[in-house]
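quick one, three chains, predict together pls
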Amino acid sequence: MRRFLLFIDSMILWLLLTWPFNQLWPYNIQSILVGVAISLLVTLIFGKRFSQRPIKWFEPQRYFWLILVYMPIFTLQCIKANVDVAYRVIHPKMPIKPGIVKVKTRLKSKIGRTVLANSITMTPGTLTVDIQDEYLYIHWIKVYAEDEENATRLIVKKFEWLLIKIFE
Amino acid sequence: MRELIGLIIIGIGVAFDFFGSFGLIRLPDVYNRLQAATKGVTVGTWGILIGVCVLSGFNSLGVKALLAVILIFFTSATGSHALGRGAHKSGIKLWKKSVCDKYEEDQ
Amino acid sequence: MGIFIIILISLCFLCLIRIALGPTLADRMVAIDILGVLVVGVCALLAVKLEREFLIDISLAWVFLSFIGTIALAKYLEKKRFD
């Protein structure tokens, strides 16, 4: 199951990278055959350590939350973050008050924590510095709350409920 | 029409790139610079790549540009975490007007 | 299109200024990281402008190489104390 998923994924990546569909049928058959061979090689070497619970890949509601809900929210947050950065950089007095705060997450899986850290980095004014088990250390360009509970409410809550639905 | 939309998206991306690089010059310490530069330049490059995809249409160039967007989502933010952690571990203090440093207290 | 490429290359010079000025080693590494992402944008724009498709392949490879370089520099920074 796991090996089959890895084979499909690396085959899709190969097809996107080489793009043999420029001519009509028959497509560039040689390129596709080389892709099959290389995907088999990758599957033999890395098959064991691909995904912990591959059954998650076959649940369609995860893709619904990922594409239709997470991506628009994330794009909106990115644009807000950039307008915020532009304001702080251009303003002559530089309204910054930096500090490192500690927040707690409820996510368990490694990929979930990674995507949470990346999302926090792209939201306005925050940057993940380190992850230790369930605590994240976050550099905040303007500190609104120093204690753990309020910082968690302000920073993590925007994405956590969504990532639990996608990755847990 | 499609060309105009593509050029507008590329223009927005270049503007974000400008603010990111300007923050790299102006802000006072490593962590603030990392923050402004990572956000600005990452989203700016996404804008440029999506604009290239709109300009070229659905062919090999456009698909590769979209693939580069996904790769940059994972690599750029992860690289900035690694740099921030490395800077903190190598003993660089926060800016002198900083409020709190919970990471220092927990070490 | 040409004006965008000129602006991006002058932004690369801003990064070079930070590399020259940077008081600590970490500042220089941040500037190198940002320079890598800027070059990806320059390559993508050149691929459209010159109509050469291999340039977008270069930008894809550059994403990976810049990431690996940044991780290696961060590891190096973590092991020792500088300044």
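Chain B has one domain: 2-106.
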